[in-house]
Amino acid sequence: MESTEIKKIPLSNLHEKIGGKMVPFAGFLMPVRYSSDIEEHNCVRNGVGVFDVSHMGEFMLTGDKALELIQRVSANDASTLFDGKVQYSYLPNRQGGVVDDLLVYRLTEDWYYLVVNASNIEKDWDWIQSHNTENVPMKNLSDSTCLFAVQGPKAIDTLQKLTDIDLSAMDYYTFKSGTVAGIEPVLVSATGYTGAGGFELYVDNKDAEKLWNAIFEAGAEFDIKPIGLGARDTLRLEMGYCLYGNDITDTTSPLEAGLGWVTKFNKNFVNSANLQAQKANGLKRKLVGLEMIDRGIPRSHYEICDAEGNKLGEITSGTMSPTLQKGIAMGYVPTEFSKAGTEVFVKVRDKLLKAVVTKTPFVKPGV
């Protein structure tokens, strides 16, 4: 049975000291904001900000059967990875839904690093272990690892002061392990959840505060700020990135959620035959982006309706976009309503407000 106790991330006291408003999230006490969500959102879009996302889970898989296990439990094709490459993937369940989405890092051909969502650490570990028929050595590093996401157009100028790794030479979704701020090893990954560019840094708990302080010193000239989960959510939604628990769940089809691009049927994986059949038979609904035409903020679970007020589906994620200054959302609608430009309505306090189906990202990366 999963523990109901709220955990603290290693730098919890530091966040409280610098004004972080701490709230329970995914089983952890996390900083939701330090100043205001809009100020923090704009800081990342235009400059540089740092998220402490040390609640995320990290598993190490090693040995000559590690890739085989990853191939069995994940939908993407991890055999295409090379040393220093990262891949976005998901773990399908047997019911046609998603156990979790995750990142797969290849350090060497028999050494992999999986990064999973905080709320699913125990569930994912048990799920992968249940398929571990070849006794692949697995290590759960979640409790000993801190993760900082340094995001925004000034992230590279900030971090380059602290490391000999040539950050400008790193392609999107690659990583390097090296020395940062005199700390070794730090895994530096050209990934993120904001669309504003930047890097994610994995570091041992004992060195976390030293690294955090060094990043803020290096970014002072760019007015670097700590960023909370509030702005993380508006930033990822402007990019149309899925959030587990909202847009993808144990019961949502990954194909309907738009994850067909990471679903590779050139191999057998959990539930692959059923997903292939679903694809062949045609999808009944799709996850779409919505932009509000009428003024109003679309919230999670609000109904998406047709012009007559008949329910088509519901919002899975929604907010007021700080960049676009209008309501944006994602939600599931029947396939015939999924084409960009289709007019739909969102029910807000019993009023039908006009919206339009929009291609994501709502905001172009780097904007």
Structure characterization notes:
- This protein has 367 residues and is of the alpha+beta class.
- The protein has helices at residues 12-17, 37-46, 66-73, 121-130, 155-160, 208-218, 229-238, 272-281; strands at 7-8, 21-25, 28-33, 49-52, 57-62, 85-92, 98-108, 111-116, 138-140, 145-151, 175-180, 183-189, 198-204, 225-226, 285-292, 303-305, 311-321, 326-334, 343-348, 351-358.
- The longest helix is centred in the middle third of the chain and has 11 residues, at 208-218.
- The radius of gyration is 21 Å and the shape is globular.
- The mean pLDDT is 97.
Mean pLDDT: 97
Overall 3D geometry? globular
Largest sheet: 6 strands, mixed
Number of strands: 20
Q: Which class best fits the helix and strand makeup?
A: alpha+beta
Summary?
The chain is an alpha+beta fold.
Blueprint of the fold:
Layout: E1 7-8, H1 12-17, E2 21-25, E3 28-33, H2 37-46, E4 49-52, E5 57-62, H3 66-73, E6 85-92, E7 98-108, E8 111-116, H4 121-130, E9 138-140, E10 145-151, H5 155-160, E11 175-180, E12 183-189, E13 198-204, H6 208-218, E14 225-226, H7 229-238, H8 272-281, E15 285-292, E16 303-305, E17 311-321, E18 326-334, E19 343-348, E20 351-358
Parallel strand pairs: 1-3, 4-14
Antiparallel strand pairs: 2-3, 4-10, 5-8, 5-9, 6-7, 7-8, 10-13, 11-12, 12-13, 15-18, 15-20, 16-17, 16-19, 17-18, 19-20
Helix pairs in contact: 2-7
